[in-house]
Task: structure prediction
Amino acid sequence: MPPASAPGGEARQALAAGLSCYLIWGFVPLVFQAIGRLGAGPWEILAHRTIWAIPFAFLLVLAARQGGQLRAVLASPRTLSWLALSALLVGINWVVFIFAVNSGRLLETSLGYYINPLFNMAAGALLFRERLDRVGLIAIALAATGVAVQGAALGHVPYVSLVLAISFGMYGVVRKQVAADAQTGLFVECLILGLPGLAFVVWLQNQGGGHFDDGAAATAWLIAAGPVTALPLVLFAWAARRMPLSAMGFLQFIAPTISFMIGLAQGEPFTALRAWSFGFIWAGAATFAYGAWRAARRVQPAAA
Result:
């Protein structure tokens, strides 16, 4: 059953947490662009992102009193295997995102995260035999049309958008198989990615190609990549357990909308054909949100 709306003050706190996580995700490209201007490449940024997320994620595990769960996860080869796969998928998502925002492709990242909930809907139908109603089919058809038009506008398959949507969508599918809460799972994923990341950073610094010791600004920005990775994920997990799915369905379009506006403000090309592609995607997103709202309306009387 979808999570019910939390009463009173907790409902307002859940809304604040949901808004906060999507606002952070919307503006986080500016953080990676700032680090990129200091000379760091996508792989170095990814490595520091995972390294500095480890202590922050561990503090969140302690705050949630999930030490026992963490020990159980570390003792379970099967759970660790699933988390290794989810770490690989989220690592692909993160490095492609960093590459895209630092190479003038913010509009493509925006398109990818507009597609993501629609990809999740299709994956649910294909992998978990979840029922797709007419509204869902219309939303997916509109999104597919938007992707095709975007390909025509770019002159090639919009691989950045598709990789972001598919990798994050499959990350969600894999995490459904993991018997671990968000904080514990995130910490283990950061460990899995952060250990080779640390080796890479040490090698890079020894080769003279690292930027961690290039001054206080570079050090501060690289360390900041950790908290801006862990904090929104935990805010999202906390809000999602306390808000109706219909409300989360609307909130999830905040981040790609902010990224879209940043891309436009930074002068990324936005042709008429590209505008048509986003028109189809926005229509698909609106249809998806309407479907989520309608489903919540049907659930509420039954729950009562």
In short: The two ends are 12 Å apart (CA to CA). The mean pLDDT is 86. Residues 8-303 form one domain. DSSP finds 13 helices and no strands in the chain.
